[in-house]
Automatic annotation (TrEMBL):
Signal sequence segment: none
Protein name: CDP-diacylglycerol--serine O-phosphatidyltransferase
Compartments, as annotated in UniProt: Endoplasmic reticulum membrane
Species of origin: Bradymonas sediminis
UniProt-listed Pfam families: CDP-OH_P_transf
Keyword match Transmembrane helix: yes
Keyword Transmembrane helix: yes
Cited InterPro entries: CDP-alcohol_PTase-I (IPR050324), CDP-OH_P_trans (IPR000462), CDP-OH_PTrfase_TM_dom (IPR043130), CDP_ALCOHOL_P_TRANSF_CS (IPR048254)
Length: 200
């Protein structure tokens, strides 16, 4: 099967691999919080995934190897690296209340929906003179790297778990960290039908 893959597709799989490794390391940290190296490497892998996500498109255009397979691989990889991985990082660092998890699940579902919509409508939004999509509807899922940066800053300040900024509360008996609202806002921005961002 690998014989059917172009160089850009292998780079895309590198993106997915970084996201998957980040998830595993975040879970390791949740089990062994006395080993902070796990979470630091989990953080570091996602910017690498972002670089690979940018690089695969350039390589595909340079080698004139753009394909439906590559587009689908890109979306599936982005779900792992910029949808599931940031949510698991938040969970590993202490957003484990019932409402926290509901927000994180909503965030991942929004990311999946946003990518599915993009794949389904990319042909309609393409400028046929340049062959490129003119704009994004909703924020691209890689913008979730900003959430990871916030978590990383919180971790460096010891503001995780019981000490997350804005504290924690209970609503209807379910734990909730107000900081998790950034995931709710990010999810809503991704599925927005009115927010249009020019594609570089």
């Amino acid at each position: 099967m690998l014989r059917e893959f172009a160089l850009a597709d292998l780079i895309t799989l590198g993106n997915a691999s970084c996201g998957t490794a980040s998830i595993f390391l975040a879970l390791n940290y949740a089990v062994e919080p006395e080993t902070p190296a796990y979470i630091w490497v989990a953080f570091a892998l996602l910017p690498i995934a972002l670089i690979l996500d940018f690089l695969d498109g350039y390589v595909a255009r340079w080698r004139k190897k753009k394909s439906m397979l590559g587009a689908d691989l890109d979306s599936l990889s982005d779900i792992v690296s910029f949808g599931v991985a940031p949510a698991v990082l938040a969970w590993a660092l202490g957003m484990r209340g019932g409402l926290d998890m509901a927000v994180l699940i909503f965030f991942v579902a929004c990311g999946i929906s946003r990518l599915a919509r993009y794949n389904a409508t990319a042909g309609l939004l393409t400028d046929h003179s340049s062959g490129k999509v003119k704009y994004y509807e909703g924020t691209p899922i890689p913008t979730s790297i900003l959430l990871v940066v916030v978590l990383m800053i919180a971790f460096t300040q010891g503001a995780v778990g019981q000490n997350f900024w804005f504290g924690q509360t209970e609503i209807l008996g379910m734990g909730f960290h107000p900081l998790s609202l950034m995931y709710l806002l990010s999810g809503c921005a991704m599925i927005s039908g009115t927010l249009r961002i020019p594609k570089p």
